[in-house]
Amino acid sequence: MDLAGARKSIEEHVAKPLGVSVEKAADGIYQVINSNMAAALSVVSVQRGYDPREFVLIVAGGAGPIHAGPIARDLEIPLVLIPRESSVFCAAGMLISDLQHDYVRTYARDIDKVDIAEVNKLYREMMDSARATLIEEGLSAAKIKVNHGMDLRYVGQFNEVEVPFELGRKLTARGLDGVIARFHERHDALYGYSMKGTAVELINLRVTAKGLTEKPKFARSAKTKVPASKAAIGKRAAYFNGKYVTTQVFDGLKLQNGHKIKGPAIVQQPTTTIIVPPDFDLKCDEYNNYLMYPKGENLNQLIKRLSKRN
Fold first, then answer.
1. How far apart are CA 281 and CA 98, in angstroms?
2. What is the pLDDT of residues 158-194, one digit of tens each?
3. Average pLDDT estimate for 238-255
C-alpha cells in the first residue's frame, strides 16, 4: 500500500475541497462505501421479504472483512461469519461447486394450445444434450441430475415466472395442470397476487443439468489451550468514531478455535484484513473461521436463537 500516495490523493481531491482533515475525509469515504453496500444488501433482502436481523452475514472477498462490521450494524444483522479464506471464497467455491449447464427452448403458446408431444420432444433433446455434455466433462451418469422448468405468464403480461417441476418419464396433461397451479402460487409469492381465472401462456421450456462433483471434507479442530495473546503482533493507532484509538493487531494465521478477541482490533492475514470495531467482538469457531458479533451478546445463545428462526 502506498500510504503517502493515498494521503496525497485524498487530501487533494476530498479533504481540501471540503475543508476537513485527511483522516476525516478518508473516514467519510469509508462510511459512504459502507452505506452503499448496506443499501445494496437491503435490496436483496428486505425488498424480497427477508429480515436481515434473522440471518447471518457471510463475508467474501479480500476487502469484505474490512466493511462487515459497519454493514452488520446498519442492518442490525446479529452475527457475521468470516471464512478463514475469505479472500478466495468465491474462487474456492467455483472449484468445488457442481458443474451446471442450462438449456432453454422458446415455445410461445397459449397454454390451451400446447402440444404435449412436441414439448416432450424438446425436453428430450435438451436432456440428451445436457447428459452428453456432462459425460464429456468426466461425470458418470449416476452423478448427473436434471431439473425442468417452464416460463409462464398471464396473457398480456410482460414478465414471465420460472416454474420448476418434476418431469418424471414425460409430461402429461395432468402434469401440465400441476405446473399451472404452481405458477399461480409462485406468482402470488413473488407479486402478492394471482389470477387463477386468467388465461396463461407458455414462453420457454428449461432444463438445468448438474454434474455432482466430489466435495472436500472440512475437519473440525480441537479448542486450543494457547491464549489469544500469543497471536498478538503489536499495537497501532486506528481511526474509529472520529478519533484515533490504540488498537491491538493479531496474526490471523495464529488464531485458532476458541480464541476470542475484544474490539477494537485488527486481524491481519496475507490476503485480507479483518476490522473488529469497538462495539464488536470476534471469536474463532471449530473450523477456525471467524464469528463477529455485537459486544455484550452471548454467542452461544445468539447462534441458538438464529438456528430456531431459520
1. 35
2. 889 999 998 888 899 999 999 999 999 999 988 889 9
3. 94
The pLDDT of residue 216: 84
CB 305 within 8 A of CB 297: no
pLDDT digits (tens, 9 = 90+) for 21-56: 999 999 999 999 999 999 999 888 887 788 899 999
- What lies within 8 Å, CB to CB, of 108 at 6+ separation is 201, 202, 203
Closest-CA residue to 110 (of 61, 160, 140, 154): 154
Q: Which residues pair with 274 in a beta bridge?
A: 267
Please state the φ and ψ torsions of residue 81, each to the nearest 5 degrees: -105, 120
Residue with cell 494465521: 253
Listed in order, strand segments (DSSP E) in the chain are: 56-58, 79-82, 99-110, 144-154, 161-165, 200-211, 232-240, 243-251, 260-262, 265-269, 272-276, 280-284, 290-294
- State how far the Cα of 120 lies from the Cα of 208, in Å rounded to an integer: 15
Q: Determine what percent of the chain is predicted with pLDDT higher than 70.
A: 99
HEC secondary structure over 41-59:
HHHCCHHHCCCHHHCEEEC
Rounded distance between C-alpha atoms, residue 66 and residue 87, angstroms: 11
* Measured distance CA(144)–CA(132) in Å, rounded: 10
DSSP 92: H
Rounded to whole angstroms, the Cα distance separating 201 from 188 reads: 17
- Which domains are delineated in the chain? 98-211 (3.30.1490), 217-269+277-310 (no CATH)
Residue ranges of alpha helices (H) inside 44-115 are 64-75, 89-96
**In this structure, what C-alpha cell is assigned to residue 23?**
483522516
Q: What is the pLDDT at residue 310?
A: 58
